[in-house]
Amino acid sequence: MLADALGLLRQGQFAQARAVLEGCTPSPDVEILLAHAHAGCNRVQEAARLLCRQAVANPGARHPARDMLDLLLPHERVDEAEAVLRAVRQRAGQDIRTHDMLGELLLQRGRTAEAHAVLTDGLSLSPAQLTTGNLMAVCLMEQGEYAAGRDLLLYILEHHPRSAMTHANLAHLLAAWNRTDESLRVHARALALRPDDANLRLNHALTLLKNGQMAQGWAEYEWRRRLPGRERLPAARMLPVLEPDADLRGKTILITREGGLGDMLMMLRFVPVLAALGARVYVQAPDTLHGLIRRMDGVRRMFHDRQPVPFHDWHCPFLSLPHVLHRMANHAGAAVPYLRADAGRVQAWAPFLPARPTLRVGLVWGGASRPDVPAAHAMDRRRSIPLRSLAPLAGVPGISLVSLQMGTYAMQMMDMPAGMRLHDPMETVRDMDDTAALITGLDVVVSVDTSVAHLAGALGCPVILLDRFDNCWRWLSGRTDSPWYPTLRIIRQIRTGQWDDVVRRLCSMLAKRDLPPSRLQPTS
């Protein structure tokens, strides 16, 4: 019966699980599972009472509320989980773990001010507590308080000098603060403590890449393949690092899907390099990219990840291509533009664009929300701009704004800023091939850090990237240009979360027509 109840809980069938458990003979195991079932049914006080009783009975064990979170959050029972954690904290406020759990959940939900208050209460119980201190440092970083976060982590390290987690968080904070040289020195201390930790090695790799140390960074980035679930095909057939005189004639190379759309669009520049070595290149990618990739020279076959893997001599995930090719003369990949729009689609979409002679400006203000992935959701909140913050664009003379926005952020057009007119052709856009055709008819694309910025850059369209302060590794540190896309220019936040200055500089560039040069290929 316990196994049945646990199965029901994992399926999100909390009421059914409660019915099973209430018929069981009372025991600690039954009580813990019943607490989870109560939580999923929004029976807050019943859940909190049982969780606290079992936590007291097993003081050295993992707090049972942690298991409750693991069961509720995959089924989007976030409100219920928060309510139970608040009740648990009210009942057992001297147990610092209750502050940690609630503070972490609030951080994941983007409610940093509330998380700060909860974690402050926790630190008042134990100022050098390891978990609480690290969570508070993350909270301070989210609020743009980098110096305070650094000082707190240094204080924690005085009491826990061998905490690899704290060294790693300090390195991450320094990298986000764009102090990459300092970050790399701290990464070295974390890795000295846990040299085989793939997550630490992965974060070290990203800092190397952000610092412009490409060859070393891509080599270190291969550690990601040791993370659970990353190695889906036999390692023995992984494409090795190629020597300058490599000859791939007669060999079939399978490039496997990896990362987001932006990652794959960025890495497609390496496909022509493999084809030039004589390889038959097969590409596994989402359907939305198939039309674009089919037009690339050297691609023999396209398929999606729901199809059986075809015969191949070697396989290589998208994000390993820079490492595999780093010894080749053309290790930077094909020149921009390495993607081109379909001429027929360009012609078909032309009537959806505003009339000349105004400057046609494509606009993307939000990324992919992904609330089910806390780290990605937090990053998306930082990179996305509320449409209302772009209201000054309405006052720039001689421009026409064209939405390239997809997803939940497009709903912000229901409450358009005063005076702004936004042409919106996206309702009937089917895939990235349609988006590419629209971009080809524009003069410039203005985008936050999303796949559309990569698409426009790969097509050779002028791009103005509106970038967050703690920018992604791919845009390097302290740069306003990009080695990946010569037609892209970056306007970056001066302070975390502050977009006003970014928008002011954007309006100035558009008003002066101060745009990167276009490399768009003619489609006729």
Automatic annotation (TrEMBL):
It comes from the Bacteria. Pfam families: Glyco_transf_9. InterPro entries: Glyco_trans_9, TMTC_O-mannosyl-trnsfr, TPR-like_helical_dom_sf. GO terms for molecular function: glycosyltransferase activity. PANTHER family: PROTEIN O-MANNOSYL-TRANSFERASE TMTC1, PTHR44809. This is Peptide transporter.
